[in-house]
Please model this.
Amino acid sequence: MPRRDDIQKVMILGSGPIRIGQAAEFDFSGSQACRALRSDGYEVVLVNSNPATIQNDPEMADRIYIEPLLPDVVKRILEIEKPDALLAGMGGQTALNIASNLAHSGALAELGVELIGCNLRSIDEAEDRDLFNQVCEEIDLPISEAMACNSIEEVLAAADELGQYPILIRPAFTLGGLGGGTAWNTGQLVEIASQGILHSQIGQVLVEESILGWQEFEYEVMRDANDNCTIVCTMENIDPMGIHTGESVVVAPAQTLSDRDHQGLRDAALRLIRRLDIKGGCNVQFTVNQDTGEFRVIEVNPRVSRSSALASKATGYPIARMAALIAVGYTLDELPNPITGEGTTAAFEPTLDYVVVKIPRWPFDKFRTADRTLGTSMKSTGEVMAIGRNFEEAFLKAIASLEYGQPHPRPLTLADASDGESMDERAHEPLPKETLDHWLKVATDRRMGALVEAFRRGMGIEEVREGTGGITRWFLHRFKRIADVEAEIVAADCDANQITETQMRFWKGLGFTDAHIADAISGFPASGWNRLPAGRTEIDVMTRRHELAIHPLFRMVDSCAAEFAAVTPYYYATYEGGGAPLGVDHVPAEKKADCRRLVVIGSGPIRIGQGIEFDYGAVHAVQAIREAGHEAILVNNNPETVSTDFDTSDRLYFEPLTTECIAEILLREGADGILLQFGGQTAINLALPLDDRMPHLSEFGLECSMLGTSPDAVDEASDRERFEAFGKRSIIRLPNGRTGKTPDAIRAAVAEIGYPVLVRPSYVLGGRGMEILTDDAQLETYMADAYIAPDKPLLVDEYLGGAIELDVDAVCDGDDVLVGAVMEHLEEAGIHSGDSTCFIPTQNVSEEILAKVHEWTKAIGIGLNIRGCFNIQFCICRDELYVLEVNPRGSRTFPFVAKATGIPLARIAAHITIGEQLANMEIPRRQTDVVCVKAPVFPFLKLRGLDPAPGPEMKSTGEVMGSHVNAAAAYLKARLATELPVPTRGGVYLTVKDEDKGNLIPMARSLQEMGFNLHATQGTARHLRDVGGIEVETCYRIAEGQSPDALDLMRTGKIHLIINTPRNSGGAVLDGNMMRRLAVELNIPFVTTMSGARMECQAIAVAQEGMPEPRRLVVDYI
Amino acid sequence: MIITGFQGESEGAKVSVTGGFSPGSGQNGVSKAFIARDAADFLLPGLPPHGHLEASGRGVLLLADGSRHEGDLFGAAKIAEGELVFTTNMTGYQESLTDPSFAGQVLTFTWPLLGNYGIAPGISESSGVWPRGVVCRELMMEPDHRHCIGTVHDLLLAHGVPCISGIDTRAVTRRVREYGVILSIFGPIEKEAEMAAILENMDSPDLADLADEVSRDDAVFLNEGAIDTDGNPLPRVAALDCGIKYNILRELCTRFEVLWCPPDIAWSDLKSIYNIDALFASNGPGDPAHPGKATAARHTLAQATKEGVPVMGICLGHQLMGLASGLRTYKLRYGHRGGNQPVLDLQTQKVSITSQNHGFAVEDPVKGMLAPHPSGANSGEVKNLTGCDVEVRFVNANDRTVEGLDVKGRPAFTIQYHPEACPGPHDANPLFDRFAELIETHLEVKANAKTR
Model:
C-alpha cells in the first residue's frame, strides 16, 4: 500500500519532561518521526513541553508548540492547526494517554483528525487489562491469572481467590509501572493497591499470580497495513520477573531460548500484534518458566518505547522512523532498508553477530537516603548500552559506561556499603558475607557487582541462583568467568611490561579494560584503582598493549551479521584475533583537503544533573561541524538519545566514554580534534586524562588537538583557588570563600567566613554533596559523612541569604562574548540552579545590574580564555552582584535559551570551537516579545526516602517551558506542563517559618479573595488572624498527633495547594517531610519558597480567567 | 502453555525426551510407526561408544583466498575440508548441524556464541551431523536449557565432526561475501603445510553426488494407516529424500500418510506399487544439475507433474522443478543461509520472513541469473521435461532471486525456502496446507471423474 496522499498535515506529540520512566528515548523516536515525515513531504506539527529536546528544534518540524501536554491544550492546538492526522505513538505513555482521552471525548472526530499508527481500539485493548486479557484468551495465548480491580474491596476479594502470596499488583494506564509492586501480605497488598488505584488513569489495578523467578523476554515487533510483520529484536532480562524491564539489566538478542522456544514466542508476538491491529512498532513482553517451558504474555506496548529505542540501537534498525512511515501508509517492503541500502527493504529481521548489554543508571549515588530496592516501578533515570563479541565484553564495557566513579567491578568492601560514598578506611575491610547475601537476594543497583563478588569468593552456580531468586544459570556462568579470569590476572601479579601477548589478547577479548587489568595485577589495592604502583598503572598496561600492537577492531552495527555490504557509519570496538586490516569493517577514507575529522564526546547516561540537554549540545556540535564542511565523529553510550542515531553524525562509535576507548577511536580515525564541552561534566572530566594521554598517542603519529577551551582554562574555572586568584585580578566579585582539604582546614575556613556557610566538594555534578550549614554540629556531621579526598578539596562559601540568583549562558571566541540570555531564578539563591524555576527575560533586575552582568560575563569569558560555551551563576544580594560559579561548558539551560531567544548557543559555540569568529558569523535575531519560563520536574513520586523539597543539591530529572507575553501566564503554562495541577478553587494549607510570616499576609489575603479556604497550624493561623485580620481554619501540627492535622486534611481532599517554607530544625523538619511526601503521593502541588508562592498565586489568578492561548515557537535560526 | 514451536501442532512435532525420530507414533490409525535415529541420540545413555578421537590444541583455518585464521580445536580430531559457507541464524544450531543440505560444506556461524542452550533430544533434522567442519567464534561449554543433554562439542565429537573456535567469524564472513563461497580446510596448526597442499588440489564438493550420500536407500512408510479425526485415511504422499529434513517429514505426517523414499525410486513403482496420491521433493545438498541421484529425482518429478499428480518441492526440490521446466540453475555468490530472508509473494504482495539454506538458485525466466557466484557455474541449457510453463510466484525481497514457482495448469508448486522452519520462523508454514488443499481438490476431481 503506498503513501497516503489524503493526509497532508500530521501532528506529533512528544512525551514532555524527562522523568523516571520516560527519558530521552522519546526525543529520539519523535525526532525520527519528524524527520521521516517531513522528508516525505508531510507538514509536521509538533507539541512538546520539554525545551531541551532536539525534536522541537526549529528545523525538525514545520510548526512547533512548546506547550503543556494536557488534553485541553492539545485540543486547542488541534483547533488552531487543523491537522489531518495525529501520531501519538512516538511520545510514550503521555502522548498515548492524551490521544486516548481526545479520542474518547469525541474531540478528534469533531475536529476531523484521524488517529494514525495505532487506533483507539488497539490502545484500549492493549492498555486496559481486562480487555487485554480477553484478547489473549480469544487468540489462545496464556496470561498470568489476573483480575482487574477498581477498589480495595475487589483487590481483597481477588487475593482470596488467588489464594496465596506473593501477589503482583499492576496499575492500568500509568507510565513506568508507577504504583505497582509485589505484596507478601495483606498489609502490603492494601498499601500497594491503593497507590496503584490512585495513579492509574482509569483507577484500576490488576491483581495477579506472582511469577517471580521466571525469565523475562521482550520482542520488538513491526507491522504494516498489509499485515507484514517482522521481529526487529529479542531481548532477555538478566533479572528474573519481579523487576521492571526498565530496571533490569537487559541483553540482546535473547541468549537462552532454543530455536523452538524463540519461534514459539515469535509466533505469539505476531499473533498479538495482528489481533490488536497495530500498524507500526510495538513491544511484547513474555515471561518463561525455564524449568517447564511454560510462558505467559505480560503486556504489550502499542507504541514505540524505551525498549524499542534500545532495540534500534542494538540492531541498527530505525524502528521509530519505519513506524512513522507505516503510519502514513507505507508497507515494509516498500521502504528501503536504510542500513544495507540499495536492494534490501525494511521487511526483514535483523540478525546480530554481537552481544548487547544494557544497564540502567540509578540516582542512588546522589540520593543516599533513597530506597535502592528495585521492583515493578522504575527508579533509574537513564541507561547505558555496550556492544561486544561476547557477553563478558559487552557487560564490562557497560559497567565502564556507567560513571559511578569506578569503571570496573572491584572486590567489594565495607566502603561499597556506605550508601554511595566510599570511605578510604573502610575500603580495607571486605564486605561481610551476610551483606553480600542480602545484596544478591534483594535486587538493587548493587546486585550485578555482588554477582561478580559471589564468584570471586568461590560461591557455586546453584548457590547464587538460589540466592538471587532464579537468575538464569547461563548468565551466572558468564559472571563466574569474569571472576575466574580476574583471579587469573590477579595471580599473574606481574608488572605490565611482563604481560604476554596471549594473556593480553585473552583478557582484552573478555572486555577487561586497561584500568581493570592494571588494578588486578596490582591486587586491587584499597587505595583505589587510580592510585596504583609504578609499573602497574593503567598507562603502563596501555603502553604494553600498544607495544604488543593490540588495538581494538571496529565493527559495524549492520543488522545483518556482515551478510550484506552495509553503509551504516555505526561502529563498536572489540578485541579479538586477527589484526588490521583483516576483519576491519571500516578503514577511514583519505581525508579531503580542508576537511578536518572532529570527534564530539557525548554525555553518557541520563542522570540527575546531566540530562538530555547535553545530548542536545552534542547533536548541535555535530551539526555545526558538518555545516562547516568537516567530518563529525560522535562517541556516546546512551541508547535513548538522538546523538546515537546512526545518521546524526558522519560516524558514530557506541563506546564507553573512558580515556582508553576514546584514545583508541582517536587513533583509528586519525582525528584532528576533539570537542569536550558539549557532553556535560562527563566530557569535561576527560579533558585532563586525555591531555595526559596525548604524548603517548602522538607516537602513533596522531596530531589531535583539544578544541575549545583548553584543559588549563577549564581547570582555572573549576579549581577554587585558581578561580579566586583570577577573581582578584579581574573586575568581578566573588563571595567570601575558602577551601579545605583536611577536617582542620575546613573548620578553620568555616571559622573565618562565619555561619551560615555553603559547603560542597569541588568537581562535582549537579551540586552533589552541597549543603548549607548553620552550626558546628552540622559541620561535623557533614564532614563525617562527606567524601574528602586529598586531591579534591572541599569548598566553603559565605551563604548569601535571600539573594536573587541569575544564570547566564554565553559563548566566547577569545575576543568577543555573546550573551545568550540572562535568566532570573524564581527561588532565592541556595536552591540548585537546575532545580530552580527561571525567567527570560529577568523580571526584577535593574538595568544597572544587568549591564554589570554583561560586562562581567565578557570579562570572565575573555579573561579565562574561553573558546566556546560557558555558563555563569551570579547572585544579587543587597544590590551587590556576585559571581558564584563559572562552568566552562554548555549548561543545562542552553536549549531553553535557544528556544526562548532564538539564539542557538550550542551551535554557535561549536562553530567557535572549530575556529570561527563571532564577528564573522550570522547571529539570528533575538526574540524579545515574550516571557519564557523554565520549570523543573522532580522524581519524588518514584524515589521514596528522598525529602521532597528543593535544596542546594539537584533533584530534578527534567524541565518544561512555558511562554507568553505575560509573565504570570508563562509561569502558569510551565507549571501546568510539570503535570501537577494548578488549583483554581479549594483549600490551601499554609505553614511557613517565622521570618516568612510577614510576607504571608498579602498572599493569604489574595488567596482568600480568589475564593480559597485557608488552613494553618496554630502559630501561622494566629499570626494571620492577629496581624492580618484574615480568617483561617486551624488544624493540629502533625507532631501533636491529634485530628485533624495537615495529613488528615490532605487525605480527605480538603487541600489543593500547600505553601510550606521548610524550617531546618526540630520536629518541623519531620512534619514538613511527612507532609510533602504525602502531597507527592496525593498529587497535591506544594511550594517551598515565598517567591514561588507569590508566583503561584499570580498563576492561579490567570488560571481562573481561563487557559492562556497556545503560542507557536517562532525563532528563525535554521 | 508450553513453548513447543508451532501452536496447535501435532504430537509428532513435540520434543521427545527419549530421542529418536518417529513422527507417526501416536497418530490416529497408525499401529506400527517407523522409528529412525535422531542425531542427538548419540548423547543419550546406552549407545555404544562412537570411537572418535577428541580434538584439542591450536588449529588453523585456511581459505582458498590465501587467508589463514588461527583458533582452538574442538569436536573430533580430524581435518575438515569443504566449501566454506555461513549461516546468520542466531538460534537453531542443532537443526543446522543436522540439516543434510550442509553436506560437503564447512559451516560458519555468524552468531558468535555457539551452543548457549546445548543439544536437545528429538529435535534434530536427521540422524547425522552433515557439515564437514564447524567454524565459530566461541563454543559454549556450559549450556543451559531444560532439554539440554550435552554440548555442541559432544554432538560433533559423537559424529566425528571437527570444529575450530576462536575464529574471527565476521572477518571470514566478509571474505565469503566478497569472494563468494570458497574452499577451505582446517585442522591442527602443526599440519598447516600439509593442509595447504590439500587445499591447493581440492575439488569442489559440488562434483560429488551429495544427494546420494545423505539420502535413504529404501522406501518406508512413516505412518502407515494414518487416518484423520473423522476416520478417513489420509492422502498418501511419497517424499523423495534428497537429504530431507525431519521436520518436513513431521509436517507431512500431520497431513498425509507418508512414504519416505530414496531419490531415485522409479515413478512407475510409486504409481503401481505404492499407489501414491501426490509427490513431494525435498531439500538436499549440492548441485541440482548433478547427473547422479538429483537428476533421477528430477525425472520423477517431471513425470508426476506431466501426469497432473500434485507436486510440492522445497529447496533442492524446487531447483529440480526449475530444471524440469527448462530453467537453468546456477550457483549463487554466497547463497542464502539464515532465518531472516524476506520473500515477497508476487500475487498478494505480502512478505514472509523465511528460513533458507541454499547455494544454488533457479534463474528468473526474464531477468536471468541474479547474484551469481564469480565462477559463473550453472547447469547450462536444459530441456523442459514437463511440457508445462512455470510462473515465478515468489521472489527474494532483497536480491529478487526466484523463491518459488507455480506450474501453470498443474497442481504443482515449489519453493526455494523452508516452510518447515527448524531453524527459523514459521511464516511460510501455511504452504503445507496449500499442498494439502491441492491434493484434496485433485482427489475430489479424480473421484468425481470415476463416479461419472
The radius of gyration of chain A is 28 Å. Residues 473-492 of chain A form the longest helix (20 residues). The mean pLDDT of chain A is 90.
